[in-house]
Design a protein that fits this description.
It is a single chain. By secondary structure, this protein is an alpha+beta fold. It has a single domain, classed as Creatine Amidinohydrolase.
Length: about 260
């Protein structure tokens, strides 16, 4: 069932989103060559907890996993697409393409966001991949308003990514969010105009294009969590939590 949020609930989500947005900015600044993923994980927990909120991914379990997620961050590097735990053993290297995905729970409401960036100077491919995916997210969000078909949003994202020579990952999608980290509806990054549900004012969605510089096929590593691009192409992930309004969308995970 798709839930409509009232003003009080949206304000709680907005607070969760602000906490998350501020944390992601600080995490991105901290990630340098030689800095470990474990240190970034500790910093993330501290930044969120000092604001009287909770890192939503830490201890999370869904219907696909019998064990709980072990870290506050999904910290994916290069051809890792999503869901890589921020285990302490890895160290960032110059040129790494990093995606940080994180969630915040505040007063029983959730926000979810992701950002991709390079450690040090980006390659030309990484720079274009980041720019295109971020732009695709922005274009998709600009399509959102009351009465619009979800397929219009999904199609906009897909067309821009594919026009620029990249692949949309189809096995993973965005989602509704609010009282739970994952709610209905599913929000694909591909689709056809005029299809899918009609968006309504008060719906809250996590829009998250996941994009590969090569093929779109994915696989899960032996840790049971980390999802990679099968052909080991570079990949990026951007995400915002938004609320549908009568004339447009408000981004709740942006300062």
């Amino acid at each position: 069932m798709i839930t409509i949020k009232n003003k009080t609930e949206i304000e709680k989500m907005r607070k969760a989103g602000k906490i998350l947005a501020e944390a992601l900015i600080k995490l991105q600044k901290a990630a340098k060559p030689g800095f470990s993923t474990g240190r970034l994980e500790i910093l993330a927990r501290d930044l969120i907890r000092e604001r009287n909120a909770w890192p939503a991914f830490l201890g999370y379990a869904d219907k696909h996993h019998k064990k709980v997620f072990p870290t506050a961050l999904c910290l994916s590097i290069n051809h890792e697409l999503v869901h890589a735990p921020a285990f302490p053993s890895r160290v960032f290297q110059e040129g790494d393409l990093v995606s940080i995905d994180c969630g915040v729970e505040y007063q029983k409401f959730f926000s979810d966001a992701a950002v991709s960036f390079t450690i040090g100077k980006p390659s030309l491919l990484a720079k274009k991949l980041i720019k295109v995916t971020k732009k695709a997210l922005d274009l998709g969000i600009k399509k959102i308003k009351n009465g619009v078909f979800l397929g219009d949003v999904s199609s906009t994202i897909q067309k821009y990514i594919e026009k620029n020579g990249f692949s949309v990952v189809r096995d993973l999608v965005g989602h509704g969010i609010g009282r739970a980290l994952h709610e209905e509806p599913s929000v694909p990054n591909f689709g056809k105009e005029g299809e899918g549900i009609k968006l309504k004012t008060g719906m809250t969605l996590a829009i998250e294009p996941m994009v590969s510089a090569g093929g779109a096929e994915i696989e899960t590593l032996d840790d049971g969590w980390t999802i990679i691009i099968k052909d080991k192409s570079l990949s990026v992930h951007f995400e915002h939590t938004v609320v549908v309004g009568p004339r447009g969308a408000q981004i709740l995970t942006k300062i």
